[in-house]
UniProtKB/TrEMBL annotation:
Belongs to the organo anion transporter (TC 2.A.60) family. One of its GO terms (cellular component) is apical plasma membrane. It is found in: Cell membrane. SUPFAM superfamilies: MFS general substrate transporter. This is Solute carrier organic anion transporter family member. Signal peptide: none annotated. The lineage of its organism: Eukaryota, Metazoa, Chordata, Craniata, Vertebrata. PANTHER family: ORGANIC ANION TRANSPORTER, SOLUTE CARRIER ORGANIC ANION TRANSPORTER FAMILY MEMBER 2B1.
Length: 710
């Protein structure tokens, strides 16, 4: 009778080689028993190294599809008429499905076929990517000018100043109305599909990371497991950068590249009405996730544990043997004892039923939250994560508006500067903790310094920008009243549609008009060049000298500040990421050993609930308050066309400073508590000491904090 297959850690005794081979024979890809270990060794699906490779690629693709929406958030707003608050809620909605199910991962961890469940989750993620691109195919082609729905080239003529007598009065036609009930129902359907796709994306991502890491830890050699997990995170961290890079490439293409109108389009990517092919990136990312999911249906439920330590790891482990004890004062325990304890910890959740697990979880949550160090570290990470979530979601839009850069260029800047800087910060933080053998006090000091310098680098950002240029009928020079009545005299003979948007710029006065009609222009000219063509509007009655005016928005006068701004943001991201590893070590060393697994789970759950879900909505709501001109769609407020740049910058950067200040305050309190604990421990240790130990304590009190820790 073959051995029973059960959860990890329930093997009755140390089985022999043949027993181990029989144990995994039931889960071979072909369904045939292969009791010979030599056959198993030749199968790549029984290699933990191949699993690490597959899981690295899967998490890379999964984070790429999760981060792609953030790279195209402003484009989605323009395409479907969404406010920043709605788009922020959309970006955060994938955390809803994730948070609702992530708690049960610790319960089902060893009861299920983990590789197969990872594959099912990846399939859901791929379906969510396809669902996100569906609104493009069920919507009508994008019309960047609402004045003509018949022929695109007529848009230029319709935007000109035409005498009111030559333009027939519009007659309401319910069948052709752009505000029909069908149009509104289609808009609600499109938005509902995107929210459903984001929810499905969060649900599919639930089993991928937790089950993958636990599977690697269970079947890798004890000495190789940290290396494999490090490789996994190193590859995974490139996902957001690739998402922004993919967004930069896709947004250069026109949104309707699959159904271009006859004669093409006359827009360029610098035109404020330009909408890139946002949907194409979701298709590419979904295909990558689907391909990465295939191998998981061939991995066994359990595989033979890796027997050999990697050769280049031995020297490192021998040199840093003291750091393997995870910062505990007790001598390093043997690998067999540590594995036995780990297996006993994993049995806490499987020994409970679902009802018992739900009943026990609130008590464990309250007990963990009563720990002051854990609570303060989580609060500091909540502040940092809120800052990162808001920055990742709306930084591309901020760069577009503040510095007049294209959406693709803004994404390339973030993907090439900010994301790599954050990766370097995480790696440097981990290296400092390992090489310097930092104890809790020094970890808190490192976190405090990183948060402090990150905050200081944010202060110059308040002054790196310029005010909104004058917009006719919206903004006004000092001493004049706002409103379109300033331009009624010159536009009186013209029939200008109220919902038209075809901006033009008077380069001499640096004044922007919503349409050539509002500038009083009656003619249009096209200047051909070798690399591009430039459209001019002439005979403009509202412009001094009659024009000409250039098609498109006025360029920002501080476009040259975009690179210094991004360098400061990237350096600040690196310093903020420096606190990631030391703050995580404070949690691992600050809670009871039996609570470590659940403490980490509670930490990530609180980060989702308190940071990643509300932060994009908070930032989006703050951005909406800086809007000075909204586009109207069927009587409702749609996308914002113009912002008060000074107010936008102050509130966006102000929120960043607010969260960084909160994180700095939490780290300062953590350092104060740890130092107080060291003093209390020092007074307790002096009682049982004798002779030489007492002299050492009294002669070197400044060394006590280090000796009481690692």
């Amino acid at each position: 009778m073959g051995p029973r297959i059960g959860p990890v850690g329930e093997e009755p005794q140390m089985p022999g080689k043949d027993a181990k081979a029989m144990m995994v024979a039931e889960d071979t890809p072909g369904g045939k028993a292969s009791p010979n270990p030599q056959d198993l060794r030749r199968s790549m699906f029984y290699s933990i190294k191949f699993f690490v490779l597959c899981h690295s690629l899967l998490q890379l693709a999964q984070l790429m599809i999760s981060g792609y929406l953030k790279s195209s958030i402003s484009t989605v707003e323009k395409r479907f008429g969404l406010s920043s608050q709605t788009s922020g809620l959309l970006a955060a909605f994938n955390e809803v499905g994730n948070t609702a199910l992530i708690v049960f991962v610790s319960y089902f961890g060893s009861r299920v076929h983990r590789p197969r469940l990872i594959g099912y989750g990846a399939v859901l993620v791929a379906l969510a990517g396809l669902l996100m691109s569906l609104p493009h195919f069920i919507s009508e082609p994008y019309r960047y000018d609402h004045t003509s729905s018949v022929d695109m080239p007529q848009d230029f003529e319709a935007s000109l100043c035409q005498p009111t007598t030559s333009v027939p009065a519009p007659t309401p036609d319910p069948s052709n109305s752009s505000c029909s009930s069908y149009t509104e129902a289609q808009h609600l359907t499109v938005v509902g599909i995107m929210f459903a796709a984001q929810t499905l994306l969060g649900v599919g991502a639930v089993p991928i990371q937790p089950f993958g890491i636990s599977y690697i830890d269970d079947f890798a050699h004890n000495s190789n497991s940290p290396l494999y997990v490090g490789i996994l995170f190193a590859v995974t961290m490139m996902g957001p950068g690739m998402a922004y890079g993919l967004g930069g490439l896709m947004l250069r293409l026109y949104v309707d590249i699959d159904r271009m109108p006859e004669g093409g389009i006359s827009l360029t990517s610098k035109d404020p009405r330009w909408v890139g092919a946002w949907w194409l990136g979701f298709l590419i990312s979904a295909g990558a996730v689907a391909l990465a999911a295939v191998p998981y249906f061939f991995f066994p439920r359990e595989m033979p544990r890796e027997k050999h330590e990697l050769r280049f790891r031995r020297r490192v482990l021998e040199a840093t043997a003291s750091s393997v004890s995870k910062g505990e004062d007790s001598p390093p325990e043997s690998l067999a004892e540590s594995q036995e304890k780990q297996d006993s910890l994993t049995q806490i959740a499987p020994d409970l039923t679902v009802i018992q697990f739900i009943k026990v979880f609130p008590r464990v949550l309250l007990r963990t939250l009563r720990h002051p160090i854990f609570l303060l570290v989580v609060l500091s990470q909540v502040c940092m994560s809120s800052m990162v979530a808001g920055m990742a979601t709306f930084l591309p839009k901020f760069l577009e508006r503040q510095f007049s850069v294209t959406a693709s260029y803004a994404n390339l800047l973030i993907g090439c500067l900010t994301i790599p800087s954050a990766i370097v910060g995480i790696v440097v933080g981990g290296v400092l903790v390992k090489r310097l053998h930092l104890g809790p006090v020094r970890c808190a000091i490192l976190c405090l310094l990183g948060a402090l310098f990150c905050l200081l680098l944010s202060l110059p950002l308040f002054f790196m920008g310029c005010s909104t240029h004058q917009i006719a009928g919206i903004s006004h020079p000092p001493g004049h009243l706002p409103g379109p009545e300033l331009f009624t005299a010159c536009t009186e003979p013209c029939f200008c549609p109220l919902d038209d948007f075809n901006p033009v710029c008077d380069p001499r006065a640096h004044v922007e008009y919503l349409t050539p009609c509002q500038a009083g222009c009656t003619g249009r000219a096209l200047q051909e060049a070798l690399d591009k063509s430039q459209v001019f509007y002439t005979n403009c009655s509202c412009v001094v000298g009659g024009g000409p005016v250039l098609a498109g928005s006025c360029e920002s006068s501080c476009s040259h500040l975009v690179l210094p701004f991004m360098l400061l943001v990237s350096l600040g991201a690196s310093l903020a990421s420096l606190t990631h590893t030391p703050s995580f070590m404070l949690i691992l060393r600050g809670v009871k050993k039996e609570d470590k697994t659940l403490a980490v789970g509670i930490q990530f759950m609180l980060l989702r609930v308190l940071a990643w879900m509300p932060s994009p909505v908070i930032h989006g709501s703050a951005i909406d308050t800086t809007c000075v001109h909204w586009a109207q769609s069927c009587g409702r407020r749609a996308v914002c066309r113009y912002y008060d740049h000074d107010l936008f910058r102050n509130r966006f950067v102000g929120l960043q400073v607010f969260f960084k200040t909160g994180s700095l305050a939490c780290f300062a309190l953590i350092l104060a508590i740890l130092r107080q604990q060291d003093k209390d421990e020092g007074t307790q240790v002096t009682v049982p000491t004798s002779g030489l130990q007492q002299q050492l304590l009294t002669s070197g009190p400044e060394k006590k904090p280090e000796e009481s820790r690692v």
